[in-house]
Amino acid sequence: TRRPVNVVITGAAGQIGYALAPMVCAGAATGREKAIALRLLDVPFAEKALRGVMMELEDAAFELVESVSAHVDPEEAFVDADVCIMVGGFPRKAGMERKDVMGKNVAIYREQARALATKAKPGVKIVVVANPANTNANILRKFAPEIPAANVTCMTRLDHNRALAKLGGKSGRATRDVKNVIIWGNHSSTQYPDVNHATIEGKTAREVIGDDAYLDGEFVDAVRRRGAEIIEARQLSSALSAASSVCDHVYDWLNGTKEGEWTSMGVVSDGSYGVPEGLVYSFPVTCTGGKWQIVQGLTIDERSRKLMDESATELTEEFELAEACLAESA
Ligand code: NAI
User: Fold this and answer.
1) Is 51 inside a domain boundary?
2) How sure is the predictor about 175, in pLDDT bands with cuts at 50, 70 and 90?
3) Mean pLDDT of 69-88
4) Whose CA is nearest to atom 39 of ligand 1?
5) How many structural domains does the chain have?
């Protein structure tokens, strides 16, 4: 049918937004079969720039696009939303404490949680990109209890894709030949990129690479530091790779992961792998019929256990800090 999917991008006047909006319009998130009604949301301060992005999207005459609209009121942007990609956030500025940035961001997610709960479709699928991504998603979940917890996710797909790319490069194979890496935990420097179950052209990654010291050391650091490396090179943070990865996240969620393959998504923990229930934590997941499931039964060695727990501890503390910030501002 021609009934369009209503897709919202928040923070659409920002740099990820500029890379993401055309990808979404080309069908990278929702597929080439569905028409798209795109809503762009940003703050009033950015309204003029947002209108500029909207004009460019109109001028690009995308085949799949039914309509594009620009909004500064979340309640208006979220009406009947099917998919909401949340990139909007407050950047850390020089001299700001971590707690100040955290406070500003979680307040945005508390407010937008209410707007989503009252205005979006009951089955709206949400992915939070803006940092602190896991904790923003968890705050959103807490303040929008009407939305099924399974529909609130955060993006760790960029970290996942970075890990695939690194292993491809190291082994001299194409990135597409690398499968089933896992990002566990927080989208932060405590994330644990796990190669214990990864394969390269069907063989175990450890066997193909033959360098456990690299995989357990330099590789982990390289994935964790990749964001900083991009900032150093571009003087701006990752934007096109973040945009492309969030399209991968949404596409797989809606259309399913491939047989025998999984991806990484920040989802609410049900206690799997000993991760405290209720944390938004990155797990290996498969998707079918528009739903994700955490991959079960993977063997976790002692080293992995420790790294997974460290990230869980950080997330628990981050969530407590977020709640404290909100209590102060309430
Ligand atoms: P940016 O600063 O260029 O854009 C953010 C946009 O959000 C701005 O246009 C701003 O006006 C808007 N915004 C602020 N408050 C808003 C609100 N209440 N409602 C709607 N829009 C609002 O930043 P950029 O580079 O596009 O990054 C966006 C976020 O994504 C940042 O938090 C960044 O840390 C995060 N990020 C996450 C990644 C991940 O892997 N999860 C990867 C890369 C970036």
Assistant:
1) yes
2) very high
3) 98
4) 129
5) 2
